[in-house]
Amino acid sequence: MKICSKCKIEKDIIKFHKSKNHKDGLNLWCKDCKKINAQENNKKNVICVDCKKPKTNYRNFRCKRCAYDFRIKNNPNLYFFCAKCGKEKNTYGEKKHSLCRSCAYTGRIPSQKTREIWSKQRKNKKLSSEIRKLIILKLIGQKRSIEQRTKLSNSKTGLNRTTKEYEKYLEDLHKEGRREKEGKNFQYKCWAKSVKERDKYICRRCFTKSKDLHAHHIKSWHHYPDFRFDINNGICLCHTCHKFVHKNKEEGFVVL
């Protein structure tokens, strides 16, 4: 409990605002007294001090236009007009400039360090579908030079990559049937559909029906290439069971 210094009524601690300036960590006035005092001050600050016209912002003594003029008088170096675009800009306490930042940086050639920083920032960003469509529409009808065509062909074949990246690229290519499975060709789709129809679209581990079903290979795709499209080598599993089987290598579902 605490006594308010304005209304002089003993009230609960919850009805006082916190403040670091006092020893007990609470304000001298209660919340109700502070609210009444703020309303009275707002009624007084309805008219601007300089132009004596009504204003919307009750906290400041001046309206927006008078406050802007007051800043320029006291700080003449705060604002300036750009010589190129003619717009008024803020210098944030710096010296006067003839051009603003947007006009000053147009036409400049960036250094190699700035280019590397920009490239790293662009790699992490993902363009939206709307921006991609606009880029595609701009590229339609444009004829590319021979240098651009060679760069694009080399990037697809892996010639423009570093030695480590190129080695990884070759390892992925040499894995048998990996592209067939990732691309999900016609033969793989027919095999998966036949396995799901045989098991009546039910997970054979938890025996539940779900929309997200997978056709699992009992004998692995990589180690047993002869049994890749054999129906007896497949089992229908849900998404959670399929992950659990691959992590724990459960018996009956995986053959090593």
Question: Strand-residue fraction?
Answer: 5-15%
Q: Classify the helix fraction into a percent range.
A: 40-55%
Structural class: alpha+beta
Biggest sheet record: 2 strands, antiparallel
The rounded distance between the terminal residues' Cα atoms is: 74 Å
Q: Which regions contain 5 or more consecutive residues with pLDDT less than 50? A: none
Give Rg in angstroms. Answer: 36 Å
The coarse overall form would be flat
The number of helices is 10
Descriptive account of the structure:
Among the domains are: 2-44, no CATH class; 75-107; 145-174, no CATH class; 184-248, no CATH class. It contains 10 helices and 8 strands. It has helices at residues 31-44, 64-74, 101-104, 112-124, 129-139, 146-157, 163-174, 178-183, 186-198, 239-248, and strands at residues 2-3, 10-11, 16-18, 26-30, 79-81, 88-90, 213-217, 234-238. The longest helix is centred in the N-terminal third of the chain and has 14 residues, at 31-44. The model has no long low-confidence stretch (mean pLDDT 78).
